């Protein structure tokens, strides 16, 4: 009989491979036939990619909290503030400054993680030593 964790990991790995393959195919098609007139300007595409990283990491980190509405309300409110701030900046510039991405991601995480930590305190969150009822495994290679 197979271990349920092994089956779950195999399914997750297949999803990750499918997403990665799709992104590579899209990149090849864009490089071959692009740019397309129906695409938004590059600065907004860059903003979308950066936003997925800025919010994808905390959402993954607190994946044990996905069942709780407070987590999603907090994350949504932070995403709205993030979008408003970037919209103001990007409306004033012609291209997305590459250095902005490298600087803003860690700085935003310094704001997002403490807010989410306070929001989810008491009912979920990353595991701590000695916390046997934690929803998220303690070992996180490469985690923030």
Termini gap:
35 Å
| Main sheet record | none
What is the H/E string? Answer: HHHH
**What's the number of extended β-strand segments?**
0
3D shape: flat
Roughly how much helix do the residues carry, as a percent range? Answer: 55-70%
Number of domains: 2
Radius of gyration: 18 Å
Number of helices: 4
Report mean pLDDT, rounded to a whole number.
81
**What is the strand content?**
under 5%
The low-pLDDT segments are 127-141
Structural class: mainly alpha
List the helices and strands and how they pair.
Blueprint: H1 4-33, H2 42-61, H3 69-92, H4 98-120
Would you give an account of this structure?
With 144 residues, this protein is an all-alpha fold. It folds into two domains: 1-39; 40-127, no CATH class. It contains four helices and no strands. It has helices spanning 4-33, 42-61, 69-92, 98-120. The model is unreliable at 127-141 (pLDDT under 50).
Give the key terms.
2 domains; flat; single chain; mainly alpha; 144 residues
In short:
Helix content is 67%, strand content 0%. The protein is mainly α. The protein is flat, with a radius of gyration of 18 Å.
């Amino acid at each position: 009989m197979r271990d349920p964790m092994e089956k779950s990991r195999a399914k997750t790995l297949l999803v990750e491979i499918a997403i990665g393959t799709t992104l590579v195919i899209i990149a090849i098609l864009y490089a071959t036939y692009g740019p397309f007139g129906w695409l938004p300007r590059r600065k907004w595409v860059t903003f979308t990619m950066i936003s997925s990283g800025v919010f994808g990491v905390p959402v993954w980190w607190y994946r044990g909290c996905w069942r709780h509405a407070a987590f999603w309300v907090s994350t949504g409110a932070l995403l709205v503030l993030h979008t408003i701030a970037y919209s103001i900046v990007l409306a004033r510039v012609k291209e997305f400054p590459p250095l902005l991405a490298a600087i803003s991601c860690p700085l935003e995480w310094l704001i997002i993680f403490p807010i989410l930590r306070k929001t989810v305190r008491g009912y979920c969150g990353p595991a701590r030593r000695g916390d046997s009822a934690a929803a998220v495994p303690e070992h996180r290679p490469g985690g923030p």
